[in-house]
Each structure stands twice: as C-alpha cells, then as structure tokens.
Specification:
This protein has two helices and no strands. The protein has about 55 residues and is mainly alpha-helical. The chain has one domain. The longest helix is centred in the first third of the chain and has 24 residues. The radius of gyration is 12 Å and the shape is elongated. The two termini are about 20 Å apart.
Length: about 55
C-alpha cells in the first residue's frame, strides 16, 4: 500500500500548493476549484488512514 500512501500524500500536497497559488493570485474561480480538490484529496486520505499532516 506504500504507493497508494505516497500518491495520496502527493495529491494533498499538490492541492494545498494550488490553493495557496490561487489565493495569492486572487483568482476566485481557481480558489473554488483548488478548495474542492483539496477537500476530496483529504477525504480520500482520511478514508484510508493516510497521514497527510506530518512531514510535508
């Protein structure tokens, strides 16, 4: 399951970075999309007990 864990962690990391970039750019549409992606990535991680808080 290591590959899945790494992929889930990477997805959350990318989503957080996209959200930060959208917020910095002031792009409301991109913020909404990035927020949705982050919520989904976090949901999947939680459902599979993937730690996404530590070591980022």
């Amino acid at each position: 399951m290591g590959g899945f864990v790494e992929a889930a962690q990477a997805r959350v990391h990318r989503a957080r970075a996209a959200l930060a970039a959208a917020e910095e750019a002031g792009d409301v549409y991109a913020v909404v999309g990035a927020s949705d992606e982050l919520e989904d990535a976090l949901r999947v991680a939680r459902e599979h007990d993937v730690d996404v808080e530590g070591g980022e």
